[in-house]
TrEMBL record:
Protein name, UniProt field: Outer membrane protein, cobalt-zinc-cadmium efflux system
Family note: Belongs to the outer membrane factor (OMF) (TC 1.B.17) family.
Organism: Brevundimonas viscosa
PANTHER family in the record: BLR4935 PROTEIN, OUTER MEMBRANE CATION EFFLUX PROTEIN
Listed GO MF terms: efflux transmembrane transporter activity
Signal peptide: 1-30
Lineage of origin: Bacteria, Pseudomonadati, Pseudomonadota, Alphaproteobacteria, Caulobacterales
Length: 417
Protein backbone atom coordinates (compact mmCIF):
# COMPACT_ATOMS: atom_id res chain seq x y z
CA UNK A 1 0.00 0.00 0.00
CA UNK A 2 2.79 2.61 0.67
CA UNK A 3 4.02 2.54 -2.96
CA UNK A 4 0.50 3.18 -4.10
CA UNK A 5 0.11 6.14 -1.79
CA UNK A 6 3.46 7.68 -2.76
CA UNK A 7 2.63 7.25 -6.45
CA UNK A 8 -0.72 8.94 -5.95
CA UNK A 9 0.90 11.85 -4.12
CA UNK A 10 3.48 12.29 -6.87
CA UNK A 11 0.78 12.39 -9.55
CA UNK A 12 -1.38 14.78 -7.57
CA UNK A 13 1.52 17.20 -7.11
CA UNK A 14 2.35 16.93 -10.81
CA UNK A 15 -1.23 17.75 -11.81
CA UNK A 16 -1.29 20.71 -9.42
CA UNK A 17 1.90 22.11 -10.93
CA UNK A 18 0.48 21.73 -14.45
CA UNK A 19 -2.71 23.48 -13.41
CA UNK A 20 -0.77 26.40 -11.93
CA UNK A 21 1.29 26.69 -15.11
CA UNK A 22 -1.89 26.76 -17.15
CA UNK A 23 -3.32 29.57 -15.08
CA UNK A 24 -0.39 31.92 -15.85
CA UNK A 25 -0.10 31.10 -19.53
CA UNK A 26 -2.24 33.96 -20.85
CA UNK A 27 -0.92 37.49 -21.24
CA UNK A 28 -1.18 39.84 -18.29
CA UNK A 29 -2.60 42.67 -20.40
CA UNK A 30 -4.35 42.02 -23.70
CA UNK A 31 -4.17 44.54 -26.53
CA UNK A 32 -6.97 43.56 -28.93
CA UNK A 33 -6.53 44.08 -32.64
CA UNK A 34 -8.74 46.61 -34.43
CA UNK A 35 -11.62 45.23 -36.43
CA UNK A 36 -11.03 43.98 -39.94
CA UNK A 37 -13.01 46.93 -41.35
CA UNK A 38 -10.85 49.40 -39.42
CA UNK A 39 -7.68 47.81 -40.75
CA UNK A 40 -9.14 47.77 -44.27
CA UNK A 41 -9.58 51.55 -44.14
CA UNK A 42 -5.85 51.92 -43.48
CA UNK A 43 -4.81 49.63 -46.29
CA UNK A 44 -3.70 52.56 -48.42
CA UNK A 45 -0.71 52.98 -46.10
CA UNK A 46 0.75 49.58 -46.98
CA UNK A 47 3.90 49.57 -49.17
CA UNK A 48 2.27 47.66 -52.04
CA UNK A 49 -0.55 50.20 -52.35
CA UNK A 50 1.86 53.12 -52.04
CA UNK A 51 3.97 51.60 -54.81
CA UNK A 52 0.90 51.16 -57.05
CA UNK A 53 -0.14 54.77 -56.36
CA UNK A 54 3.31 56.01 -57.31
CA UNK A 55 3.29 54.01 -60.56
CA UNK A 56 -0.15 55.41 -61.40
CA UNK A 57 1.08 58.95 -60.77
CA UNK A 58 4.03 58.27 -63.06
CA UNK A 59 1.73 56.99 -65.81
CA UNK A 60 -0.51 60.07 -65.54
CA UNK A 61 2.57 62.29 -65.71
CA UNK A 62 3.56 60.55 -68.94
CA UNK A 63 0.18 61.53 -70.42
CA UNK A 64 0.91 65.17 -69.66
CA UNK A 65 4.34 64.82 -71.17
CA UNK A 66 2.98 63.09 -74.28
CA UNK A 67 0.71 66.08 -74.97
CA UNK A 68 3.68 68.46 -75.08
CA UNK A 69 4.91 69.41 -78.53
CA UNK A 70 8.64 69.20 -79.31
CA UNK A 71 10.71 72.30 -78.68
CA UNK A 72 11.69 74.49 -81.67
CA UNK A 73 15.35 74.64 -82.66
CA UNK A 74 17.19 77.94 -82.85
CA UNK A 75 20.16 78.03 -85.20
CA UNK A 76 22.85 80.58 -85.99
CA UNK A 77 25.02 80.06 -89.07
CA UNK A 78 27.77 82.22 -90.60
CA UNK A 79 29.14 81.78 -94.17
CA UNK A 80 31.93 83.35 -96.22
CA UNK A 81 33.82 84.67 -93.20
CA UNK A 82 37.46 84.60 -92.13
CA UNK A 83 38.62 83.03 -95.40
CA UNK A 84 41.13 84.13 -98.05
CA UNK A 85 40.95 86.72 -100.84
CA UNK A 86 37.74 88.69 -100.77
CA UNK A 87 36.45 86.60 -97.84
CA UNK A 88 39.06 87.78 -95.40
CA UNK A 89 37.59 89.01 -92.15
CA UNK A 90 33.86 89.35 -91.67
CA UNK A 91 33.01 92.10 -94.18
CA UNK A 92 31.58 89.73 -96.85
CA UNK A 93 30.01 87.27 -94.40
CA UNK A 94 26.44 86.03 -94.58
CA UNK A 95 24.85 85.36 -91.21
CA UNK A 96 21.60 83.42 -90.84
CA UNK A 97 19.46 83.19 -87.73
CA UNK A 98 16.80 80.47 -88.16
CA UNK A 99 14.01 78.82 -86.19
CA UNK A 100 13.00 75.23 -86.99
CA UNK A 101 9.95 73.34 -85.78
CA UNK A 102 8.96 69.67 -86.16
CA UNK A 103 5.40 69.77 -87.51
CA UNK A 104 4.48 66.33 -86.10
CA UNK A 105 2.37 65.37 -89.07
CA UNK A 106 0.63 62.03 -89.69
CA UNK A 107 -0.92 61.94 -86.23
CA UNK A 108 2.33 61.52 -84.31
CA UNK A 109 1.18 63.46 -81.26
CA UNK A 110 -2.23 61.78 -81.00
CA UNK A 111 -0.66 58.33 -81.34
CA UNK A 112 1.85 59.15 -78.61
CA UNK A 113 -0.88 60.41 -76.30
CA UNK A 114 -2.98 57.31 -77.03
CA UNK A 115 -0.21 54.99 -75.86
CA UNK A 116 0.33 57.04 -72.70
CA UNK A 117 -3.38 56.92 -71.91
CA UNK A 118 -3.54 53.16 -72.48
CA UNK A 119 -0.56 52.63 -70.18
CA UNK A 120 -2.15 54.88 -67.54
CA UNK A 121 -5.33 52.81 -67.78
CA UNK A 122 -3.29 49.68 -67.18
CA UNK A 123 -1.60 51.32 -64.18
CA UNK A 124 -5.01 52.29 -62.74
CA UNK A 125 -6.25 48.71 -63.06
CA UNK A 126 -3.06 47.43 -61.46
CA UNK A 127 -3.73 49.85 -58.61
CA UNK A 128 -7.19 48.34 -58.18
CA UNK A 129 -5.71 44.85 -58.34
CA UNK A 130 -3.18 45.80 -55.66
CA UNK A 131 -6.09 46.94 -53.47
CA UNK A 132 -7.85 43.60 -53.89
CA UNK A 133 -4.71 41.56 -53.24
CA UNK A 134 -3.79 43.62 -50.18
CA UNK A 135 -7.31 43.19 -48.78
CA UNK A 136 -7.13 39.45 -49.43
CA UNK A 137 -3.78 39.15 -47.69
CA UNK A 138 -5.01 41.17 -44.72
CA UNK A 139 -8.12 39.03 -44.41
CA UNK A 140 -6.11 35.81 -44.54
CA UNK A 141 -3.59 36.95 -41.92
CA UNK A 142 -6.42 38.23 -39.72
CA UNK A 143 -8.33 34.95 -39.96
CA UNK A 144 -5.19 32.89 -39.32
CA UNK A 145 -4.45 34.94 -36.20
CA UNK A 146 -8.00 34.43 -34.99
CA UNK A 147 -7.78 30.70 -35.68
CA UNK A 148 -4.45 30.49 -33.84
CA UNK A 149 -5.99 32.21 -30.84
CA UNK A 150 -8.92 29.78 -30.85
CA UNK A 151 -6.58 26.80 -31.09
CA UNK A 152 -4.67 28.14 -28.11
CA UNK A 153 -7.91 28.50 -26.12
CA UNK A 154 -8.91 24.96 -27.12
CA UNK A 155 -5.50 23.70 -26.02
CA UNK A 156 -6.03 25.37 -22.65
CA UNK A 157 -9.43 23.72 -22.33
CA UNK A 158 -7.97 20.38 -23.39
CA UNK A 159 -5.29 20.63 -20.72
CA UNK A 160 -7.91 21.49 -18.10
CA UNK A 161 -10.10 18.55 -19.14
CA UNK A 162 -7.10 16.19 -19.18
CA UNK A 163 -6.08 17.27 -15.69
CA UNK A 164 -9.64 16.77 -14.46
CA UNK A 165 -9.76 13.28 -15.96
CA UNK A 166 -6.39 12.47 -14.47
CA UNK A 167 -7.55 13.56 -11.03
CA UNK A 168 -10.66 11.41 -11.39
CA UNK A 169 -8.45 8.46 -12.32
CA UNK A 170 -6.21 9.10 -9.31
CA UNK A 171 -9.21 8.92 -7.04
CA UNK A 172 -10.06 5.52 -8.47
CA UNK A 173 -6.41 4.47 -8.09
CA UNK A 174 -6.49 5.50 -4.45
CA UNK A 175 -9.68 3.54 -3.90
CA UNK A 176 -8.06 0.52 -5.50
CA UNK A 177 -10.52 0.40 -8.38
CA UNK A 178 -7.84 1.17 -10.99
CA UNK A 179 -4.17 0.15 -11.15
CA UNK A 180 -1.38 2.68 -10.61
CA UNK A 181 -0.63 2.43 -14.33
CA UNK A 182 -3.78 4.45 -15.07
CA UNK A 183 -2.48 7.31 -12.96
CA UNK A 184 0.87 7.26 -14.70
CA UNK A 185 -0.88 7.26 -18.05
CA UNK A 186 -2.91 10.27 -16.95
CA UNK A 187 0.27 12.12 -16.00
CA UNK A 188 1.71 11.37 -19.43
CA UNK A 189 -1.42 12.66 -21.12
CA UNK A 190 -1.31 15.86 -19.05
CA UNK A 191 2.33 16.43 -20.07
CA UNK A 192 1.42 15.89 -23.72
CA UNK A 193 -1.47 18.34 -23.39
CA UNK A 194 0.89 20.87 -21.84
CA UNK A 195 3.30 20.48 -24.77
CA UNK A 196 0.40 20.98 -27.19
CA UNK A 197 -0.54 24.14 -25.31
CA UNK A 198 3.02 25.48 -25.58
CA UNK A 199 3.01 24.80 -29.31
CA UNK A 200 -0.36 26.50 -29.72
CA UNK A 201 0.91 29.51 -27.80
CA UNK A 202 3.94 29.79 -30.07
CA UNK A 203 1.72 29.57 -33.17
CA UNK A 204 -0.62 32.20 -31.72
CA UNK A 205 2.24 34.60 -30.95
CA UNK A 206 3.68 34.13 -34.45
CA UNK A 207 0.27 34.75 -36.03
CA UNK A 208 -0.20 37.91 -33.95
CA UNK A 209 3.25 39.12 -35.00
CA UNK A 210 2.37 38.58 -38.68
CA UNK A 211 -0.89 40.47 -38.26
CA UNK A 212 0.91 43.34 -36.54
CA UNK A 213 3.41 43.57 -39.38
CA UNK A 214 0.94 43.23 -42.27
CA UNK A 215 -1.52 45.72 -40.75
CA UNK A 216 1.36 48.06 -39.83
CA UNK A 217 0.03 48.48 -36.29
CA UNK A 218 2.03 50.65 -33.85
CA UNK A 219 1.63 48.20 -30.95
CA UNK A 220 1.75 44.39 -31.04
CA UNK A 221 -1.53 42.52 -31.12
CA UNK A 222 -2.19 40.17 -28.23
CA UNK A 223 -5.85 39.25 -28.80
CA UNK A 224 -8.70 39.46 -31.30
CA UNK A 225 -12.20 40.47 -30.26
CA UNK A 226 -14.54 39.25 -32.99
CA UNK A 227 -13.11 38.36 -36.35
CA UNK A 228 -13.88 36.58 -39.58
CA UNK A 229 -14.25 32.92 -38.67
CA UNK A 230 -17.91 33.17 -37.69
CA UNK A 231 -19.00 35.54 -40.45
CA UNK A 232 -21.24 34.48 -43.27
CA UNK A 233 -19.39 34.89 -46.59
CA UNK A 234 -20.85 37.12 -49.29
CA UNK A 235 -19.94 34.36 -51.73
CA UNK A 236 -21.79 33.79 -54.97
CA UNK A 237 -24.56 36.24 -54.11
CA UNK A 238 -22.36 39.14 -55.23
CA UNK A 239 -22.79 40.37 -58.81
CA UNK A 240 -19.52 39.82 -60.62
CA UNK A 241 -17.84 41.18 -63.71
CA UNK A 242 -14.49 40.45 -65.20
CA UNK A 243 -11.77 39.31 -62.82
CA UNK A 244 -9.14 41.97 -62.04
CA UNK A 245 -6.44 39.94 -63.79
CA UNK A 246 -8.61 39.82 -66.93
CA UNK A 247 -9.17 43.56 -66.81
CA UNK A 248 -5.43 44.14 -66.56
CA UNK A 249 -4.83 41.77 -69.47
CA UNK A 250 -7.43 43.65 -71.55
CA UNK A 251 -5.73 46.97 -70.76
CA UNK A 252 -2.33 45.53 -71.70
CA UNK A 253 -3.81 44.31 -74.99
CA UNK A 254 -5.21 47.80 -75.74
CA UNK A 255 -1.83 49.37 -74.95
CA UNK A 256 -0.05 46.90 -77.22
CA UNK A 257 -2.50 47.69 -80.03
CA UNK A 258 -1.89 51.42 -79.67
CA UNK A 259 1.87 50.88 -79.94
CA UNK A 260 1.35 49.43 -83.42
CA UNK A 261 -0.08 52.76 -84.58
CA UNK A 262 2.85 54.60 -83.02
CA UNK A 263 5.34 52.49 -84.95
CA UNK A 264 3.35 52.96 -88.17
CA UNK A 265 3.48 56.73 -87.73
CA UNK A 266 7.20 56.58 -87.05
CA UNK A 267 7.67 54.95 -90.45
CA UNK A 268 6.53 58.19 -92.07
CA UNK A 269 9.11 60.97 -92.47
CA UNK A 270 9.47 63.80 -89.97
CA UNK A 271 8.62 67.12 -91.62
CA UNK A 272 10.44 70.15 -90.24
CA UNK A 273 9.63 73.74 -91.23
CA UNK A 274 12.13 76.54 -90.72
CA UNK A 275 12.12 80.34 -91.02
CA UNK A 276 15.00 82.74 -90.51
CA UNK A 277 16.72 86.03 -91.24
CA UNK A 278 19.94 86.27 -93.27
CA UNK A 279 22.30 89.23 -92.98
CA UNK A 280 24.54 90.18 -95.91
CA UNK A 281 27.45 92.21 -94.60
CA UNK A 282 28.83 93.24 -98.01
CA UNK A 283 25.53 94.72 -99.18
CA UNK A 284 24.46 95.82 -95.69
CA UNK A 285 21.11 94.07 -96.32
CA UNK A 286 18.89 91.42 -94.77
CA UNK A 287 16.48 88.84 -96.22
CA UNK A 288 14.11 86.18 -95.00
CA UNK A 289 14.79 82.47 -95.36
CA UNK A 290 12.29 79.67 -95.09
CA UNK A 291 12.19 76.04 -95.99
CA UNK A 292 10.91 72.56 -95.31
CA UNK A 293 13.02 69.45 -94.74
CA UNK A 294 12.28 65.77 -94.39
CA UNK A 295 14.32 62.57 -94.48
CA UNK A 296 14.03 60.25 -97.46
CA UNK A 297 12.70 56.84 -96.38
CA UNK A 298 15.07 54.87 -98.57
CA UNK A 299 16.59 52.49 -96.02
CA UNK A 300 14.81 52.76 -92.68
CA UNK A 301 11.04 52.36 -92.92
CA UNK A 302 10.66 51.10 -89.33
CA UNK A 303 9.37 47.73 -90.56
CA UNK A 304 11.15 45.77 -87.85
CA UNK A 305 9.62 47.90 -85.09
CA UNK A 306 6.16 47.54 -86.66
CA UNK A 307 6.52 43.75 -86.83
CA UNK A 308 7.74 43.69 -83.22
CA UNK A 309 4.72 45.75 -82.08
CA UNK A 310 2.37 43.40 -83.91
CA UNK A 311 4.04 40.37 -82.31
CA UNK A 312 3.72 41.96 -78.86
CA UNK A 313 0.04 42.59 -79.58
CA UNK A 314 -0.46 38.91 -80.44
CA UNK A 315 1.30 37.95 -77.23
CA UNK A 316 -0.96 40.29 -75.23
CA UNK A 317 -4.02 38.84 -76.95
CA UNK A 318 -2.88 35.32 -76.06
CA UNK A 319 -2.37 36.36 -72.43
CA UNK A 320 -5.88 37.80 -72.39
CA UNK A 321 -7.39 34.56 -73.67
CA UNK A 322 -5.45 32.57 -71.10
CA UNK A 323 -6.43 34.96 -68.31
CA UNK A 324 -10.12 34.65 -69.19
CA UNK A 325 -10.00 30.88 -69.27
CA UNK A 326 -8.04 30.65 -66.01
CA UNK A 327 -10.27 33.19 -64.26
CA UNK A 328 -13.41 31.31 -65.26
CA UNK A 329 -12.00 28.01 -64.05
CA UNK A 330 -10.71 29.54 -60.81
CA UNK A 331 -14.02 31.24 -60.14
CA UNK A 332 -15.99 28.02 -60.61
CA UNK A 333 -13.57 26.17 -58.36
CA UNK A 334 -13.72 28.90 -55.69
CA UNK A 335 -17.53 28.87 -55.71
CA UNK A 336 -17.52 25.09 -55.33
CA UNK A 337 -15.00 25.27 -52.47
CA UNK A 338 -17.09 27.93 -50.73
CA UNK A 339 -20.25 25.82 -50.95
CA UNK A 340 -18.35 22.77 -49.72
CA UNK A 341 -16.81 24.72 -46.85
CA UNK A 342 -20.24 25.84 -45.68
CA UNK A 343 -21.34 22.19 -45.50
CA UNK A 344 -18.10 21.30 -43.75
CA UNK A 345 -18.69 23.97 -41.08
CA UNK A 346 -22.21 22.67 -40.44
CA UNK A 347 -20.94 19.09 -40.19
CA UNK A 348 -18.09 20.13 -37.89
CA UNK A 349 -20.47 21.97 -35.55
CA UNK A 350 -22.71 18.92 -35.41
CA UNK A 351 -19.66 16.81 -34.69
CA UNK A 352 -18.66 19.09 -31.80
CA UNK A 353 -22.14 18.82 -30.28
CA UNK A 354 -22.10 15.03 -30.54
CA UNK A 355 -18.56 14.80 -29.15
CA UNK A 356 -19.47 17.00 -26.18
CA UNK A 357 -22.45 14.81 -25.36
CA UNK A 358 -20.36 11.67 -25.75
CA UNK A 359 -17.64 13.00 -23.47
CA UNK A 360 -20.15 14.13 -20.85
CA UNK A 361 -21.75 10.68 -20.76
CA UNK A 362 -18.33 9.00 -20.73
CA UNK A 363 -17.24 11.11 -17.79
CA UNK A 364 -20.39 10.22 -15.86
CA UNK A 365 -19.93 6.53 -16.67
CA UNK A 366 -16.25 6.64 -15.71
CA UNK A 367 -16.91 8.22 -12.35
CA UNK A 368 -19.62 5.62 -11.74
CA UNK A 369 -17.18 2.87 -12.67
CA UNK A 370 -19.23 1.63 -15.62
CA UNK A 371 -16.69 2.43 -18.35
CA UNK A 372 -12.92 2.23 -18.46
CA UNK A 373 -10.38 5.02 -18.59
CA UNK A 374 -9.51 4.00 -22.14
CA UNK A 375 -13.06 4.77 -23.25
CA UNK A 376 -12.95 8.12 -21.44
CA UNK A 377 -9.62 8.92 -23.07
CA UNK A 378 -11.05 8.04 -26.48
CA UNK A 379 -14.11 10.29 -26.03
CA UNK A 380 -11.90 13.13 -24.77
CA UNK A 381 -9.61 12.84 -27.79
CA UNK A 382 -12.66 12.81 -30.07
CA UNK A 383 -13.92 15.99 -28.43
CA UNK A 384 -10.56 17.76 -28.81
CA UNK A 385 -10.29 16.69 -32.44
CA UNK A 386 -13.86 17.78 -33.18
CA UNK A 387 -13.29 21.25 -31.73
CA UNK A 388 -10.08 21.70 -33.70
CA UNK A 389 -11.80 20.43 -36.83
CA UNK A 390 -14.49 23.09 -36.36
CA UNK A 391 -11.78 25.78 -36.30
CA UNK A 392 -10.13 24.29 -39.39
CA UNK A 393 -13.50 24.21 -41.20
CA UNK A 394 -14.14 27.87 -40.45
CA UNK A 395 -10.66 28.86 -41.58
CA UNK A 396 -11.18 26.91 -44.81
CA UNK A 397 -14.45 28.79 -45.35
CA UNK A 398 -12.66 32.11 -44.87
CA UNK A 399 -9.97 31.10 -47.35
CA UNK A 400 -12.60 30.10 -49.91
CA UNK A 401 -14.36 33.46 -49.47
CA UNK A 402 -11.05 35.33 -49.80
CA UNK A 403 -10.17 33.53 -53.02
CA UNK A 404 -13.61 34.10 -54.52
CA UNK A 405 -13.56 37.77 -53.48
CA UNK A 406 -10.18 38.22 -55.13
CA UNK A 407 -11.48 36.74 -58.37
CA UNK A 408 -14.54 38.98 -58.18
CA UNK A 409 -12.45 42.08 -57.56
CA UNK A 410 -13.83 42.97 -54.12
CA UNK A 411 -12.86 42.89 -50.48
CA UNK A 412 -13.78 39.71 -48.57
CA UNK A 413 -17.12 39.40 -46.74
CA UNK A 414 -18.72 42.25 -48.67
CA UNK A 415 -16.67 44.90 -46.88
CA UNK A 416 -15.97 48.16 -48.67
CA UNK A 417 -12.44 49.29 -49.40
Amino acid sequence: MPPLKSGWSRLAVSCAVVAMATAVTGPACADPAPSFEALLERIGLTPTIMEADALLDAAEARIRQARVRPNPELGLEAENAFGTGPFQGYDNAETTLSLSQDLELWGRRSARVGVARAEAGTAALRRDLADVEAASRLALVYAEAEAAERRFQLAEEALTVTIADTRAALILVEEGREPLLRGIQGETEAAAARATLDEAQAERDAAFARLTAVAMLPTPVTSIDGGLLDRTPAGVTVAVGEAPEVQVAEAERAAAESRIEVERVRARPDVTASVGIRRYEAEDATALTFGVSMPLPLFDRNRGAIDAARAEFRAAEARLIGARQEAEADRNAAEARLRASASRVAAADAGVTAAEDAYRLSRIGFEAGRISQLELRSSRAALINARNAAVDARLARVRAEIELARLQGRAPFGTQQ
